[in-house]
Amino acid sequence: MVKDNYKKYKQLRNKYIFFTYEGYSISETQDSLEVVYNFNLADRFHFFPSLKILKKSIIKNQLAFSEIENFIFNIGLIELISYWKAACPPKIIIKPFRLSEEQIAWWKKIYFKGLGEFFYVNSIKCSVDDFVEIVVDSEKETCNAEYKVEEQKVLIPVGGGKDSIVTLELLKERFQTIPFILNPRPASINTIKVAGFKEDELMEIQRTIHPQLLELNDKGFLNGHTPFSALLAFVSILAAALTGSRHIALSNEVSANEPTEMATGVNHQYSKSFEFEKDFREYVSKFITPDINYFSFLRPLNEYGIARLFSGFPEYFSVFKSCNIGSKTDSWCCKCPKCLFVFIILSPFIDKDELIKVFGKDIFQEPDLLKYFDELIGKSIVKPFECVGTIDEVNFAVMETIKKRRHHLPYLLEYYKSLPEYGKYQNFEEKRITQFFEENHFLNKEFLDILKSAL
Q1: What pLDDT, on the 0 to 100 scale, is given for residue 3?
Q2: What is the pLDDT of residue 59?
């Protein structure tokens, strides 16, 4: 199958030799501002994805179209990668505005590393130099918005999982916070309600994928993972500008830095990594606006530390969700590696009966999850291509759960006790996990003090 995909990649790349970012249109109604992008694949297929910004009282900065065009243009540059990957043409043509050589190099890096999983899964061999050429067909210069903020408002992207809940809870009493949701779903809406926010206090943007892309996928064009968190980053910059927010507090942890596949360094979570965060901050400051502070509030913590903090907010247990498969039905599927990971990382802190109430079953009893369990504990070569913690902290959490449950262990925990890894992690230095605090982060003193006091 992988070889077939690579053959398909070569055929499509030879047939569809260019991809064009034609431009976008901006329209305004009483209730919303809508941006529709225009991409085309070799003049054969046309895509019109859109963003709809709902007008609410929290939108304080009614910026003119000319002032937000640079924000919108850059969102298109990250959005296009979802459509380019259908055939991976060797040339991308940019028409709306001019890009410098420095910007082109930056975009090639995010495209290449953000598609690392896509290339790996399809066995596509290429380098950052040869996988695509970016050509600019415009002399029009973008202009940075005169964006000045006096207030210290904090925009917090909320996805409905445990991480953004921790950020929201720790910051909402100290700052004027604005929850931001891209494509609201029940878990994210219920999260902000539990946090005490009304829906008109929510910054909301709706993103629509053009159906032509889904049709091509059904016809056998290439498909796979794209760096969604990078898209969220660019959209959040626009949301911050519209709400007059100086800070954007993400909830990405240090665990996101660990590669999914160690040999190649491919990382499912690349656009949640510290490397991306650093690059993105520099790009925004230089080419969009220097007055928005994008950072991850939870970067100093590992998944284990975040789980410990989250366990102190039981009011969210019934509403939070992290399962991608169950996102449409607002449920835990209990069959995927993400469900298994969350169950594992919370088990040292939340009682078994409470976890069973949250998930609907004891996931440790599921033999069908053995493959994913082996991947999470590092017994397999590749970790699951999901947003999960490091191998060390998964093993440590499993060990702590075995100590906690003691007798009558469920299937996966009994299996773990039979492995050589069990002896290895019995002698594991506990403080490497429980007292971990990463020093490479972008928290200023005020945010850092809040996080440390919570620990």
Answers
A1: 56
A2: 86
**Alpha-carbon separation of residue 444 from 309, 320, 448 (angstroms):** 21, 28, 6
Distance CA 200, CA 150 (A): 23
378: its two tokens? 């590092």
Residue 202 and residue 184: Cα distance in Å, rounded? Answer: 10
Token pair in block for residue 45:
């297929």
The reported pTM is 0.95
Nearest 5 degrees, angle CA 399-CA 404-CA 409?
80
Q: Specify the DSSP class assigned to residue 385.
A: S
User: For residue range 160-201, what is the model confidence (pLDDT) as tens digits?
Assistant: 999 999 999 999 999 999 999 999 999 999 999 999 999 889
133, 164 Cβ separation under 8 angstroms? no
- Three-state DSSP class for 28? strand
pLDDT in tens, 389-443: 999 999 999 999 999 988 889 999 999 999 987 777 777 778 889 899 999 999 9
Q: Is the pLDDT of residue 1 over 50?
A: no
Rounded-to-integer distance, Cα 375 and Cα 265, Å: 16
CA 421 to the chain's CA centroid: 31
Strand ranges (E), 329-378: none
Provide the residue type at 337 as one letter. Answer: P
What angle, rounded to 10 degrees, do the helices at 274-287 and 228-243 form?
A: 40
Position 371 scores a pLDDT of 97
Give residue for tokens 């305004």: 28
Query: What count of other Cβ atoms lies within 10 Å of the Cβ of residue 126?
Result: 14
Structure tokens at 343: 């169950």
Task: Give the 3-state secondary structure of residue 262.
Answer: coil
- Where are the chain's structural domains? 2-296, 326-434
The crossing angle, in degrees rounded to 10, of helices 391-405 and 337-346 is: 60
Tell me whether residue 173 is exposed, middle or buried, using C-beta atoms within 10 angstroms of its C-beta: 0 to 12, 13 to 18, 19 or more. exposed
In this structure, the dihedral spanned by the alpha carbons of residues 348, 349, 352 and 357, taken in order and rounded to 10 degrees, is -140
Residue 436 exposed, middle or buried by CB count within 10 Å (0-12, 13-18, 19+): middle
Residues 6 or more apart whose Cβ sits within 8 Å of residue 308: 348, 349
